Amino acid sequence: MNFCKKVHNADYYVAIEDVPDHIWNDLGCTNNLYFNPNYLSSIANNHPEIDFWYVVLLNDEKKPIAFATIQVVDFYLESVQNELKGIVSQIKKIGRSLGLISPQKPFKILTCGNTFVSGEHGIFIKSDQNKQKVIKELAKSVVQLVNDEKQFNYKISGFMLKDFIHESLFISDELLEYNYHSFNVEPNMLMQVDEDWLDFTDYLSAMKTKFRVKAKKAMERSFPLETIQIDQYNLDEYAAEMKELYKNVSSKAGFNLGSFNLETYKDLKRNLGDNYVIRGYLLNGKLIGFLSAMICQNNLDAHFVGINYEYNREYAVYQRMLYDYIQIAIENRLQQINFGRTASEIKSSVGAEPQNLTIYFRHKNHIPNKILSFFINKIQPTPFNQKFPFKVKTLVAQN
């Protein structure tokens, strides 16, 4: 076993393969693929630049009651290029004047959650547990991990627990007692899939005329595109192009906690089979776009996409991807699509609605944590013009 050490209420593991089978059996969480060792190993094995840890919380009888994934990522303040840039500039100015921020070194952020996917995919708590108590124990276990200096050859700058939905705040707000600060980030864009939709035509029929016409025009413009399935067998053929297409999209993001290694797709397809979808878009034999998604329980979760923006407008590449996500969900009789963050307005035009997400953050040291509180309170999601394309509007339940 390679786990860090046993504390009275937690076991720490540095490799997902080291977690014993009896723990997975006791937790009963592996039907959710985000807490399945096949998924977790695919992510960890292809991102050696990130330190991965796994925490299993135990009750007094030493039975597992919760599981959390942890990543230690490098965060450079200079990487922030969105509306937070002004706030970050003030933080850098004050932090460097006080000697708290080095211009050469990145922040080491210990993240409890999924670095590469938005949503509550980092903490699993058994349903029979007091979730407020478990969150407190988790916060303590994270500090215990960091305080064992032998485990790290660097200093942790801050702690982050990410992506709690509105309904979870009565649980996650327990973190405020431990000097965490909360703020909202860009919302998840969610779409409910009507159980009466048997095919894409049914989806179009449910739309108001203006949006139905827009969808049909996008499908017509994208007609010259050939769609292909990408898997572990043909990924190498398209890998170089996919990396460039992914960079085109990721470079437009305000900031990223980590860069996704597309080699991960091989393991995801090998380990998850048809539950992981990768679709390419060819124009005259040239790959100009791709989408990826995971089928998890009754949801379709959109993951990374890549686009050659030179062709995007003429061939409606991104719009076609959004409609293809919807088609995939309908064909698989799924209940909900999680389109993720970014491009909120265009996602709302195909039927998605926002689900607020809250992040909790604290600096390891008291003084910079106090300073951060003034700036974190200023963070707000970017407003957008919400569209309502359906004849009968179905809200995402949250407020």
Task: Give the tags.
399 residues; alpha+beta; Aminopeptidase; 2 domains; 14-stranded mixed sheet; 33% helix; 25% strand; Acyl_CoA_acyltransferase; GNAT family N-acetyltransferase
Strand content: 25-35%
User: Under the CATH scheme, which class of the largest domain?
Assistant: Alpha Beta
Shape category: globular
Q: Summarize the helix and strand pattern as letters.
A: EEHHEEHEEHEHEHHEHHEEEHHEHEH
Return the domain count. 2
- First and last CA, distance: 45 Å
Number of helices: 13
In the CATH hierarchy, the third-tier topology of the largest domain is known as: Aminopeptidase
CATH architecture annotation name of the largest domain: 3-Layer(aba) Sandwich
Main beta sheet:
14 strands, mixed
Model regions low in confidence, pLDDT < 50 over at least 5 residues: 79-83
What would a concise description of this structure say?
The protein has helices at 21-27, 37-45, 85-97, 131-147, 169-172, 200-205, 209-221, 235-250, 264-272, 309-315, 317-331, 344-349, 366-376; strands spanning 6-7, 10-13, 51-58, 64-75, 107-112, 123-125, 158-165, 181-192, 226-229, 276-283, 286-296, 299-307, 336-338, 353-363.
Describe the overall structure.
This protein has 399 residues and is an alpha+beta fold. The chain folds into 2 domains: 203 residues, Aminopeptidase, CATH 3.40.630.30; 141 residues, Aminopeptidase. It has 13 helices and 14 strands. Strands 1, 2, 3, 4, 5, 6, 7, 8, 9, 10, 11, 12, 13 and 14 form a 14-stranded mixed sheet that branches. Strand 1 and strand 2 form a beta hairpin. It is globular, with a radius of gyration of 22 Å. This is GNAT family N-acetyltransferase.
